[in-house]
Amino acid sequence: LPAVALTLLAMGAIMGGWIAAWFDERTPLVNALALGVAWSCVIIVMSAIVGTREPIWYTVCATALVAAGTTIGGIVHVRAA
Fold first, then answer.
1. In angstroms, rounded to a whole number, what is the distance separating the alpha carbons of residues 52 and 61?
2. What's the chain's Rg over C-alpha atoms?
3. In this structure, how many other beta carbons lie within 10 angstroms of the beta carbon of residue 34?
4. Within its chain, how far is the Cα of 54 from the centroid?
5. pTM of the entire structure?
6. Is the dihedral angle over the CA atoms 49, 63, 31, 25 positive or is it negative?
7. Is-contact 71 17, C-beta < 8 A?
8. Which of 78, 66, 63 is nearest to 23 (CA)?
9. pLDDT in tens, 51-61
10. Nearest to 73 by CA among 24, 25, 27, 10
């Protein structure tokens, strides 16, 4: 189940990065990176405040996947344009 959840999270992050880059044609990669930073901060803060039943590796992987996924999505948009 964690592998499926991380896969879906990565796909959503790539799509989110692409959409964030699409919103601003002048600095598309900045928007994608900002989304990745904000989303990663939310994951870290929520796991620290609320707590989680998942092991720590899951939170670390989720944070890394979000940061990498939004960056990849932004790069895909820039390369396609």
1. 14
2. 13
3. 15
4. 19
5. 0.88
6. negative
7. yes
8. 78
9. 778 888 888 99
10. 10
